[in-house]
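OP here, attaching both records as promised.
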Amino acid sequence: MFSKEMADASNFVQGVDTSFMVIFGIISFFLVGITATMIYFVFRYRKSKHPKAKQIHGNNMLEIIWTLIPTVLVMVMFYYGWMGYKPMKEVPDDAFTIKSIGRMWNWQFEYENGKRTDTLYVPKDRAVKLDLVALDVLHSLYIPAFRLKQDLVPGKEEFMWFIAGREGNFDLFCTEYCGLSHSSMTTSVVVMAEDEFDKWYIDTTTVAPVISDKPGALGLRIVQKNGCLACHSLDGSKIVGPTWKGLYGRMETVKSKGQTREQIVDSAYVINSIYNPNDDIVDGYNKGLMLSYKNDLTEEDIGEIIEFMKTLKE
């Protein structure tokens, strides 16, 4: 049922798997036992053999037995569940902390030295703590191989921690339905040898892939990294926000402070829409769905995005 090769993926695998197998074993036993008993009773006490019903009186000993046994079994399941869960809340003092941000519909990870990535890089055999932040709606960070899942609630401090025991790439995704593109909110956990991670961590040079010299290529990379294309299409189709196809330089009808007016989509408008997304809402779209990127994108970044938008002609 579980892959033995992944048994050492994190320090929580054994406890969670043991708890699961105990609970699964107990419910499987009773599923088979109760079903078999029901089938036996159907044939043993069918109407043709017992045409006249008989009154059955209570049995105190039987009552005690079927009260005590389930109670013991529930406590056994609770014990294994608690022993698997309790260590997940006991974070080592020397844990390496990473801020993990969930927003519609992408993940971003911020390291203490200022690095930001859309993939979670962690060292092997070192305690890692993820401070979880939801910027908009409920999300849930799930790493199946590590047997870890934790909800992200806006405005509430949440965390998870683990010690990765195996190098490699592991799936990470959101398991709380968070809107239209929830299914695309996926990324990876990359577990690296500790010395390799340290080299990666202290390397302050650019780690982004080589960008093509094609106009708008860097802008495309920026919008992909920040999850912009989850809400804005490039082909003219309508999703959460206005399509970017042919948008730059076009006259749009917007609502500003309760007033409807015409607005040309120029550089100033794009910058303000990214920093203050609720100031001017394009007609036909809803307010409050986009958060400010003031702390995420510089004006230079937005300039590259604008260059990319200019390539998306009708």
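Record two, same layout:
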Amino acid sequence: MTVQIDIGELTSGARAGLDLEELLATRLLVQGNSGSGKSHLLRRLLEQSANWVQQAIIDPEGDFVSLADKFGHVVVDAVGTEKDLQMIAARVRQHRVSVVLNLEGLDADRQMKAAATFLDGLFDADRDLWYPMVVVVDEAQLFAPSAAGEVTEEARRRSLGAMTNLMCRGRKRGLAGIIATQRLAKLAKNVAAEASNFLMGRTFLDIDMARAADLLGMERRQAESFRNLDRGHFIALGPALSRRPVPVKIGPVETTGRGGSPKLMPLPEQPKQDAMDLIFTPSADEVQPVRQRFAEPVMSTGEILDQLSSAQRAGEEAEPQAESLLDFGEREEKVAGIIAEILSEEDAAFQPIATLYQDFQVRCRIAKLPGGAPDLQAFREKLSVARAGVEKGEMDDSAWAQAELIAAELPQDMRGVYLLLAKAALGKTACPGNLEIATAYGTRSPGRARWLLSHMEERGFLVCATDLRGNRIVTLTDLGWQTAPGDEAAA
């Protein structure tokens, strides 16, 4: 079956057609500087072929999500883990649904990893699912760079491998690659070389014009003609387009992108003083920066001892012992209050356990705590939980009892960290950052926090994963609870 789709018109006034069945076997490369009309061309091609073939668009800027409203494409935002994205890609091939992979908001490194994961999922589908599919990759030089850049070597290697598979081996799996790039010089040659159809738009650099002329079989002196192309005008060549280079003007489209060229408009008229007020006066809904205030001076241990001596000379009574369960409950409340007072002081959370316990004993004697101060082991456990900021009253008692039971299998100084993660997982809140975990452990080192999570993961208490936006997700294996994604670098 031969399907000709209309992409525009030739200089003679005739319609410019593209053989869709031939395109599936020979692939397409589009080049043009920013503003030359590449995205417009891709949108025209996608709209005209939407009813004939399944489509997948790798969209780094979120420009093609508008296809969903008119043509029923499903927008896949790059969230969750790489495993989730790979499973989505497998379902896309299974159910033959056209999709737009929206990578907007991700940095270059994560965009490359997400695109590689999705393309690998399409490529690795079972043989029974090798239905024809057009795979459009906008800004292909980001995913198949000709040289190493600022991204990590792992991300570059994975993305380049996935793009190479798409263009070199995708045909047998029904995948027809359509790649668009601003500069041919930035695109890996082994990826560009596999395309047999070309649409070359406006470009200015000599190296790009020469390479475009070579691909189209034009003489070098004709290369400068690419500088004179208007926006939306391309030179077409290939078995799916034309047997010789012909100029094509791309036709109109039905949908619009969220980007586009900015339009000039006059500046608002306002007196100079009003403009100064707008700049230098904060608005009512503007978030004001919070200035860090110095904490109140911390009372030294010597001053506390002086208070203790004065109280003893005044003839304080002997420390009463707990005689009933009511007294015991009040005692636990006082212990919790004393520990909270200690941790409220500046840098107290990072003091050695021996120093904190000495301070705790003194405060217990001043408070006339019934039964005396708890021993060091009990204090260490209570301090660990208090550092984590866990309030039992906020939790379901039965569920929280399970968390405490499992935390008891860890060393005492790690129990608070586990309960901190359990609190976040039970409340479906974001995973705590490294600094928060480190503080719960009694250190300022984010590296120590990462070691703690690795240690607990090795012992089978939890599993750490990273979603495609780089946020951490922690699953507590024994409880089956999972935190929401959280930035590990969050303060």
